[in-house]
Amino acid sequence: MVNRFWQTYRTVLFCRLFANYFALILIPVIVAAVLTNFFVVRLIEHDAERLNNTIMQHFSEQTDDTFASLERDMVNMLSTASIKNFSRTSGDPAELTQHYERIHSLMQQMNKLDSEHLVYKSFLYFASEDLVIDGNTYNSKDEYFQEQYLIKDTDIPSYFANFTGKKSMVFTKPHTVYERPPFTRDIVSTHLNTAMLMSYPFNSASPDVYLVVNLDLNKLREQLGIQEKWVTDTMLVDSSGSVLISNGSSELQPDSFAAMLHSNQEQTLFLNPDKKALSFTKSRFNDTWYYVSMINLSALMKPASTIRTMTFVLLAIFIVVGGVVSFYLSRRLYNPIHEIKTGLESQHKHLDDAPGSYCGNEFDKIKRFSRSLISKNKELIQTVSGMFPIVQEQFIARVLFGEYRDSLSIEYYAKEIAFPYKPVSAATVLCIDIQYYSPFAQQLSETSKSFMLAELKENIRKLSPALIWVCQTHSQQLSCVLHHEDNRLCDPTETADVIKMLLEHPYYKASIGIGKTVHSVAALHQSYNDALSMLHYKSLHTGAEICSEQRVWKERSAGDSFLSSQEVNRIFNRYKAGDCKNLLQSVFDLLDAGMRSNANAHQMKSLGTDVLNTWARAIESERNDFDISVHSELFAAINRCVTWEELRQTFREIHGVLFRTTEAPDRKQQFDEILDYIRTHYNEELSIEYFAEQMNMSAGHFSRMFKEEVGEKYVEYIAKYRISKAKQFLLETDLKIDDIAEQIGYWGRNSFIRNFRRYEGITPAKYRTIHQS
User: Fold this and answer.
1) If 0-12 CB within 10 Å is exposed, 13-18 middle and 19+ buried, where does residue 125 land?
2) Which residue spans traverse the membrane (predicted)?
């Protein structure tokens, strides 16, 4: 019974799944297959026609440019002075020499024409003279056409008929040219050429000279070739339908082509009576020329037949795959349904709204659980909706930071968080910088500061909820996006004045930076950066203030934000002289000068940092107790200052830290102790650096102080005391001079004798002899 129910239910599932698959996938696939088979041929014809037109257009432009370039070269050739001044010679040697020079000049220019890709040979044909000039030689007409440019006999009459009347870029009929070595009768090869003629003077009905440029038709045919497998032939045809040049062996009926010109548009694909597809493009170089391409329809339509076959194969594959997938899913679909039902049965007491036994099949159980999930989902949606203001505020902050700069990303994220906005509207950013006064900076907790900022944001929003966006961009910085109304302009300065009244607070100083007005939400980061740059000019006065570009230029200060070299030297000199009190007073003088010149906070803090750095360098030069952590905290204290008074108080504290005044011992007593030490240890090494370090002085400072207290230099005092002890040893003992030098602290005999003679005027031995006798 159960197995029969299972098999029946699986069959029902299979039918339902396959029916859904048929409705959702197979029907669109069948419709797509029919539409593909119906429209694919036309689409392929259209695409092939467009591709063929593009290729033909490019090909015709390239060929026309070649002919146009050749025409320019021919005009330039005939415009040269050598042609204009070419005349019959009278036999005079000077004229004859000049005549040959002109001929050689023309030969050189003809060589340039011969270098063109399509040019087989070019020459000048003089109508009034028996002369032909090409790039290699000049001959009489008969000799030239018999030896240099031999034309097939049947083509000679039509060829020479062209050298009459005015010719302006006239093309001759094709003619055969024999290639043979000069003065021989052995024909090496033949060429099928056509010639381009131009006469000079240009507007004369009886020109003096014809420029003939013979084109190699074989090269022309190569250039006419289009490397597409469905193009069987490419031809150059005149308006009468005569084929001038053909790349293949196809034939074109002149009557059918003339009818085609009248009945069809340029660059359209059509069938001629021979069931051949044709397409033509008119030449820009010659209005009577047309470029014609012949299309192999079977090759062209091969993709269409391939696509048709593939559509039927794919349709069969879809049907087979749909049946297999439906059968597989019908076998496995009941397992998760049964597992869900079993799991819900164990939890039905938590899902039932009312007590009592539960009855129903597995689908009823799943429906009941779904209703419970929907209820919980509504609660979750309400929770998420309460978070939308926070998410939207964060979105505004990211726009201001420049993380979203293109309108597409802004539109996408705004839609995700249901944030309404106008992509294009004038807006201005106001940045509000909050700095807590020093008495309250440490007293207020972070929670209190957060509540104060939240209250401030809410008060600003109440001014105009629809026109002002407010967000917190940093821990102590708010940003307001002020939108200008469509019907009237909302002045950012007036709005800043209103917000300024909300910012008057005894706990903190607020500065409002006004950015430039932008005209799209994507450009708000530019206005935000301008507002931040305006905050760079905030002052050290108490109370709220507005920093706008107009105010900055009006109240700009010319004061320096760094110490001059004279001030630095003055600080070093005062410190060395021990005048630490005036160091603080000099800072107060700088602050007073900055206040009078209305200097901004950045300038004065930079100046204060420079002063502190100079103090630290001065102390470091005299003491070895430099502490990086302490000095870093001192620099940070300057940056935390909000008002002029806080800056003064900070420097008082810094001065007290750096120049601590302790009870100095009696200086005379210190030097008396040093003198006692010298008298006791006169025979040891007594360096001035040792005593200077003991008194926390530099060597130079110690030397100056020793002279002031003792009356003579440190080095002189030690030398004289040692000499006095030496005289005592000389008179009271029998020690040798070397031993006495060692006893009084000299390293050698010579230095002892030299110093003794310096102070006593005689050597130690002489001194002993004189006084002992």
Assistant:
1) buried
2) 20-41, 310-329
